[in-house]
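Hello K.,

You asked for the raw outputs rather than the summary table, so here they are, unedited. I folded two proteins back to back in the same session to keep the settings identical. This is the first:
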Amino acid sequence: MPVQDKKPAAARNTAYDPGIALQFFKSAGQAENVTQGSTLFAEKERAIPLLKPARMYLLLKGEVELQVHGKPIAHVRPGEIFGELAVLSSAPRSAAAVAKTDGIVIALDEKKFHAALEHHPDFALMLMSIMIHRLRETIAQLQASGGLKKEDAWKEAHAFDPKILQQLTEGLADDPPVHYNARQPIIARGQKGLRMYAVLEGQVSVSIDGHTVEVLGPGGVFGEAAIISESPRLASAVAETDCELLAISREAFLILVKASPKFADTMLTTLAERLRYLTAKLD
């Protein structure tokens, strides 16, 4: 998490609605007290399934400070959420959360999060928008710092079983699968995004300013940021090999998120992994 960030992204993102967040958290969790000075989670802390699962939080009252190496990087205020990336990506905490005052929170572990998601898909869309906002900020910082010029191993990623994805989108996708030849451009950074894409066969290379940040195989998805936030493309994509892609419109995407909690959860996890990967390059 970048030290320049003095507020949680949710507080600065116009897509964030505290009312939707409160409804979501109350549907599966209960309010609990926290005391001044208590640590809600520690930096680099890993979840222990069954014994100590990762939890995400909504702050109802009080103030929580996010710290890296013991130094404050952000402050959470009532109505804001924090700690969600550890639940979505099952990765170690990138910061510690310490109560600066007595307060009240609602916490959701992974099981409760999934239960709430079934009834409140609008929260998933809101959270995706927040993470895309963070992605844009992180990319801007990487460009300013030259972080994208570092030589890093490609990140192999996938999200869905291609057959299951085809079944989910049957009747929703506007077009039949489309074929791209090796080295053929698919999308370009800065373009207006009308569709996202799922890889059915082959590999796709995703890059920012000519530097590869991700290689996607069958089941991988890309281009979702532009259709969720209705903003220019964050990255470019080129067919690494001959490949077959499924194009998904914004309308179809929104239907899928609302109709399938599993689809929404997988998309959130994919975004969380991308955000963690790029944020780590800032360090």
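The second followed immediately with the same parameters:
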Amino acid sequence: MIAEEDFGSFQGKKVRRITIANKNGLSAKLITFGARLTELWTPAGDGTMDDIVLGFDTLAEYVATNTYFGATCGRYGNRIARARFMLDGTEHQLDRNEGNNHLHGGKAGFDRKLWSADYDPKGQAVIFSATSEDGEMGFPGRCDLRTTYTLSDDDRLEIVMEATTDRLTLMNMVHHSYFNLAGQGSGNILDHEIRLAAPFYTPVDAELLATGEILSVSGTPFDFRKAKKIGADLGALSRVGAGVFEEGGGYDHNWCLDGAGTELRTCAEVHEPKSGRRMTLQTTEPGVQFYTGGYLSERVMGKRGRALCKYAGFTLETQKFPGTPGFAHFPDCVLRPGGTYRQRMVFQFSKDKRA
């Protein structure tokens, strides 16, 4: 089922909100501002439905936020140090939107675009399209973009992000939903149990910039190869981090996934014990940014009058490694004319059976 309604206007143009639902009652709400997921309703073990992604009730709040809730981000998701990179012998200066650095495509990245939307003939998918012009936020090349959300009857939400270019450029799109499997606005996610299929991680400095190192997770708070509570080792992060941890920011790092390639494989498994909700993520990407929302606070009001808090949600942003343009040994993120950037992420939802 697909339904559509108005969701305000942005720069004089209407923003559309589109709902897709499957036969089991799972439903997702999407808006054309940022090709963004704003609601995701799934059942708990007792059958109770709740919205498990963070977001806002109004378009004005999405326009005003710097949280990237639910957005398609690019051209380059994550951070580029000093907002510049070399490509084919030419230095490109990008928009500086986090201190001296570049984050998630800049102040007018893909998350700020008004995308067009079409429907799959079978009624199972919404296809968002947009264009990123040559020079936008400092990136070379005109790029055609597409993000497709498909909600299937086997309770899978698939997100496919694609791009082509007319000139050599960078491309590293990310999907930026924050999840709380107990329900958005229900408190923190520190008791969620998570497993990450990742034997290595990329450490960061005090500006959250990748250092270029690739380190083993063994014996560190970054070891999630066996499921454990998200909050289990937060107190130990100060031993391995820089100043970023002094204010208790929690995790905001890239994990290097097993089996890097172009095929789907398991990235993460998450379980919320009280609700019984489970979520498994598969990806085609080599890395995933696991962020625990340590810089959220009660000052951020979520949907339906529910105030958020520190650690109110977590992200799983499948990606190339952060800072890739500066490190030759990191996965390549160059998009060439005639080629197609494409990444898939598939969320499988299930629940514990309750009497």
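The chain has one helix and 28 strands.

Happy to rerun anything if the numbers look odd on your end.

Regards,
P.
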